Amino acid sequence: MTSVWDWANRQLRDLTVYEPGKPIEETARELGADPTEIIKLASNENPLGPSPNSIAAMRTALESAHLYPESTGVYLRNALAQKLNIGPDNLILGNGSNEIIEFVAHAFLNRGDEIVTHEYAFVAYKLVAQLFGAQTIETRTTNFQPNLDGILKAVTPATKIVFLANPNNPTGSLLPQHEIDEFMGRLPDNIIAVLDEAYFEFLNSPGDSLRHIRDRRNVIVLRTFSKIHGLASLRVGYGIAHPELIQVLQKTRQPFNVNGIAQIGALAALEDEQHLKKSKQLVDEGRAYLEKQFRAMKLKFNPSAGNFVFVQVGDGPVVFKKLLAEKIIARPLRGYKLSEWLRITVGTMEQNEKCIAALKNILS
Questions:
Q1: Quick one: DSSP state of residue 73?
Q2: What count of other Cβ atoms lies within 10 Å of the Cβ of residue 196?
Q3: Which of 90, 183, 186, 364 could form a disulfide with 148 if both were Cys (CB 3.0 to 4.6 A apart)?
Q4: What is the DSSP letter of 36?
Q5: What is the mean pLDDT of residues 64-88?
Q6: pLDDT at residue 6, rounded to an integer
């Protein structure tokens, strides 16, 4: 008897499904616990939740849930354009920034093409390339820091896209802006550069990657409302590029790809500077606390520029399971071939302290 796999696109057979952080509800069911008892430090979410202004705006917007959303996200794009000092035609909205990664692949990848990134980069780049029948070239890192010279040397005539996340997930590594600028000056013009800046708002001294867009380089910068804005469940991301590149990507976008409630929630979140400031302060203090504790515990960690810390704990899967038993969800990294490491999201200080106490108990 034949299988449907026999005539499905062949690259799907070996495609690894993206493994998200373990959900609170699933953990609560497995432990027989109340979901409110579970501490989730696995998916780099904002523990403060969304802006109160965003919640209020979405509640009002529910009354119009029977209407299709404005298809191009004009109000949110206009607000973003004003905030970033660019034009609305420099922006495209996505169902999370992950969808914009797919737009780029739809637009520029064919079977047999290549993408170039570095080891321990966000796994979605590799998965999308495989989905389109393209090959991923991963270059070596040094102390988890990408080697930009190595990435440039890996570019071949088959290379269509280069992916860089800055800061990088899951390692937290940050490339200085001057190195990004030098890299962009040496990258051939026919290569699409994707600069993934999902954690941009957590930086103390953010650089200006948008300068390359103003120079009309073939760069697309990715940002999101899922992290500091606390709107991960709504799935709103955006891409920034020169208008012609945005026009190409718009051809790959389905109508109404970002729902109307999400657009209104994101618009209100964008305007709430106080919530952003409070969220960043919580992360700065919590990350410093975690790193101080890891240092005292003599655990190796990679200094992080995001809202998480990447820490070596020995047997990562075992420690992950023991933390689960303590009702704490961290993120194991076997999919990155980093089985000795966990990624731990910065939570509230109370959550951070409970995590450290549990980790000390487990490792002792």
A1: -
A2: 29
A3: 183
A4: G
A5: 93
A6: 77
Quick one: pLDDT at residue 17? 67
Which residues are bridge partners to 91 per DSSP?
A: 240
In a domain, 13, yes or no: no
Nearest of 103, 115, 25, 123 to residue 333 by alpha carbon:
123
Q: What is the DSSP string of 93-136?
A: EESSHHHHHHHHHHHH--TT-EEEEETTS-THHHHHHHHTTPEE
Does residue 116 contact residue 94 with C-beta atoms inside 8 Å? no
Q: Give 70's pLDDT tier (boundaries 50, 70, 90).
A: confident
Q: Is 124 inside any structural domain?
A: yes
Task: Please state whether the predicted TM-score (pTM) of the whole model is above 0.90.
Answer: yes
Specify the CATH number for the domain of residue 167. Answer: 3.40.640.10
Structure token pair of residue 240: 């920034």
3-state secondary structure of 75: helix
Residues 264, 319 within the same domain: no
In this structure, what DSSP letter does residue 229 have? Answer: T
Picking from 251, 271, 291, the residue at the C-terminal end of a domain is 271
Of 201, 278, 234, nearest in space to 97 by CA: 234
| Alpha carbon 37 to its chain's center | 26
For residues 263 and 58, is the Cβ–Cβ distance under 8 A?
A: no
Give yes or no for a contact between 104 and 249, defined as CB atoms under 8 angstroms apart. Answer: yes
Q: Label residue 65 exposed, middle or buried (CB < 10 Å: 0-12, 13-18, 19+).
A: exposed
As a residue count, the chain comes to 364
Number of domains in the chain: 2
Tokens of 156: 């071949």
Of 271, 304, 319, which residue constitutes the final position of a domain? 271
Instruction: Give the structural domain span for 82.
Output: 52-271
- Classify residue 100: in a domain, yes or no: yes
Residues 229 and 133 in one domain: yes
Q: Label the pairing between strands 159-165 and 141-142.
A: unpaired
Examine residue 52 and say whether the peptide bond preceding it is cis (omega within 30 degrees of 0). no
Phi, psi of 190 (to 5 degrees): -85, 5
